[in-house]
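$ run holo --ligand "magnesium ion" --emit tokens
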Amino acid sequence: MATRSRARRREMDIDENEIITMENVTKSYSSGAPALNGINLHINRGEFVFVVGDSGSGKSTLIKLLLRELTPTEGDIHVMGYDLVKIRHGKIPKFRRNLGVVFQDFRLLKDRNVYDNVAFAQRIAEVPTKEMKKNVPSILAMVGLAGKYKAKPRQLSGGEQQRVAMARALVNRPAILLADEPTGNLDPKNSWEIMNLLEEINEQGTTVLVVTHNPEIVNEMKKRVITMKKGVIVSDVENGEYINED
Ligand code: ADP
Ligand code: MG
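-- output --
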């Protein structure tokens, strides 16, 4: 309930500007070392944050917790004023409407064209048709796909497919965009196009959290960089660089 989560915010004393809060978060899947171990993370509205770290260090687990796809074994998570430990199941769709998500493997609807893949997100959010007919072309123009409405995913390059996924993630104007290795399957040119889009939507006010393995991009963009290792945040710096320990 909104009132309860506001009370919880007061109780935890979360700053008004803070849009993502993790306090002492641990996530264990089964026996063995936890995937995340004592994570504390504070992200303000409007930030652009990279999350880097070796494979298996817990980056995707972190993203899944922020999406409320998983719940923590221990600790507190607040996102956009929602208490993700206590949130009722019925409230999760409303919570997710304000989150855009992009994955490495695009996850488009294969039998639907570009326009319908994006419109689908608006239908789920119950956006009136009249508005949808303005929003979908506008977001497709922004990602540079104005001429491709009727193409099916298999008729598009990887870079184009990821731009459709970006349009779908952004069409509902989310407060937060979470991207888990969005350029993992793309060549450098397309990777930069996706990063430039992420930066553009961040400049328009969306908080952006991007998991990446791309040192060139991280070092060039000079954003906040969070480095994870074995389930722990080992560094968190503004204007950071990709830390390579190999
Ligand atoms: P990353 O995204 O940084 O590669 P993950 O968050 O995917 O890391 O994984 C962190 C750890 O948790 C790894 O040791 C991985 O094997 C384990 N793990 C991830 N998902 C599951 C799962 N569904 N069941 C069991 N173990 C998992
Ligand atoms: Mg991962």
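-- notes --
The first helix runs from residue 2 to 12.
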